């Protein structure tokens, strides 16, 4: 299996197939999407009759998000990868695992042929809402005797004094923000829908602090479609409101989820992480 890297884009070329991972621009052949990223929506609109491999949750998200936006999902051959089981694509074997990258429907995978084995995890958050997922795939990668481990260089901070903001820390910050508002003052919050779980949790956090995080009916329906078994959080029970706004200001709490890959580990932690993976070669995208 040959690894070709062009413009931070990785293509795996075996004897029978070429598979491009998280492409940012149009490419030939099948592609694998491991996570949401800014260029994905434009990419899907420009692809030809191609097969797109992805997490079932990401496929569900795209279906609901496109409907929420009033867009038409491109007519592509979407294939949901099984998690924790091997999937055969020509002479490539793909084993996908649940991941957490602060968005929705993220996966990492081990891809191999008869010659070599790659662990692919371009974006992840080791201290996120689902850190057990990271622990599980990290163990699987460690036991796999990888020839290569691939991740984004942007995941590693510049200095060892870096401290990542966790989801728990974000919820605590929201509580603190609400507690410091004047008695007759409503809160204001900026939201994005790339990490819908965060919105659900913030609704509960706001309610516990005496605020209703009021969503538009279409936004609430979008969350219900993604989490059909989640009890809707009351938007009228509390005496005060936390209003969703679209423009940032000095009095607004910013809870948006960025799709850009950002630092999540100090260099020291990254070194320890890579020591656990034990790949023969590390590839930074």
TrEMBL record:
This is Uncharacterized protein. It comes from the Bacteria. The lineage of its organism: Bacteria, Bacillati, Bacillota, Bacilli, Lactobacillales.
């Amino acid at each position: 299996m040959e690894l070709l890297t062009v413009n931070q884009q990785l293509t795996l070329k075996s004897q029978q197939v070429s598979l491009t991972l998280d492409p940012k621009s149009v490419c030939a052949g099948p592609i694998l999407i491991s996570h949401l990223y800014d260029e994905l929506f434009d990419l899907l609109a420009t692809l030809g009759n191609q097969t797109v491999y992805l997490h079932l949750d990401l496929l569900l998200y795209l279906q609901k998000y496109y409907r929420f936006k009033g867009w038409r999902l491109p007519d592509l051959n979407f294939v949901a990868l099984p998690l924790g089981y091997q999937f055969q694509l020509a002479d490539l074997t793909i084993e996908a695992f649940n991941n957490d990258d602060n968005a929705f429907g993220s996966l990492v995978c081990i891809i191999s042929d008869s010659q070599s084995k790659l662990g692919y995890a371009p974006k992840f958050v080791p201290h996120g809402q689902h850190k057990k997922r990271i622990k599980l795939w990290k163990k699987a990668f460690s036991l796999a005797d990888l020839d290569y481990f691939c991740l984004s260089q942007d995941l590693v901070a510049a200095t060892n004094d870096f401290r990542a903001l966790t989801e728990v820390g974000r919820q605590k910050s929201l509580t603190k923000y609400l507690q410091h508002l004047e008695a007759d003052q409503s809160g204001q919050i900026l939201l994005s829908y790339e990490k819908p779980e965060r919105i659900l949790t913030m609704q509960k956090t706001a309610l516990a602090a005496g605020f209703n995080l009021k969503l538009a009916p279409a936004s609430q329906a979008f969350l219900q479609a993604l989490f059909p078994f989640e009890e809707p959080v009351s938007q009228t029970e509390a005496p005060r409101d936390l209003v969703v706004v679209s423009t940032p200001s000095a009095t607004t709490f910013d809870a948006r989820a960025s799709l850009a890959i950002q630092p999540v580990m100090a260099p020291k932690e990254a070194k320890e992480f890579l020591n656990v993976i034990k790949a023969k070669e590390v590839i930074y995208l």
